[in-house]
Write a structure and sequence with these properties.
Layout lengths: L3 E2 L5 E2 L17 H13 L11 E2 L5 E5 L7 H4 L8 H11 L20 E5 L12 H6 L1 H8 L7 E5 L1 H10 L14 E3 L5 E5 L4 H5 L5 H15 L7
Helix pairs in contact: 5-6
The structure holds iron/sulfur cluster.
The site of iron/sulfur cluster (SF4) has 14 residues, from α1 and α4.
Amino acid sequence: MTRYEGKKGGIVPDAAIPTPMYDASCRRCVRLARFLDEVRTAYPTYRCLPVAPFGDAAARLVIVGLAPGMHGANATGRPFTGDFAGILLYETLHAYGYASSPLSRTIDDPLTLVDCRITNSVKCLPPENKPTPAEVKMCNDYLAADLATLAPGGVLLALGRIAHEAALVALGLRRSEYVFAHRARHVLPTGTVLFDSYHCSRYNTNTGRLTPAMFRAVFDDIAIELGRERSRP
Ligand code: SF4
């Protein structure tokens, strides 16, 4: 069992060990690690590694997605970058003053986020965009380390039910006490406010389950919560 020596030489239990937000060499999920190996063979130019959070380390808004997309974050190495799922997200972030550009094309473009960070519940690409509950659980310590940096009064935005539940588990809260619903607002005991939205996936936007107006309404709620301006004209 891994332990480390505390300042006074005492043994600190595992639960107290600071965990990183991300480890590019992590292969704890055997199914996902093998799948990344297969995808890397099929697409040699794709990054095919765990995808790090992106954005402002001191952000008051942290957006939690599901997992990297095959031809998006998995290929480029930046969340929601390179595929359809990022189009509405970055357009909206730009409209509300969080992003320097409405487009996120590659990990090398000059896009920056201000007061906002994007992370995922699962850092590796899952087959068919469907991580198993065990994989979500396995990756949760990275998410917990990420969310632990959110100051009191900060805001979380969960994109979809899996992200909503992963965020609650990462914060040590019971999933049954906070039910996911589009545009729900949950005040958590930590002082953090958790907002929910349907995920901005191609499927949800193409079917009209999530429209740009619906997504903006969530960002209007967040703007009020954070005392920010609403959408730019
Ligand atoms: S999904 Fe998370 S825990 Fe699993 S292998 Fe990737 S980085 Fe590691």
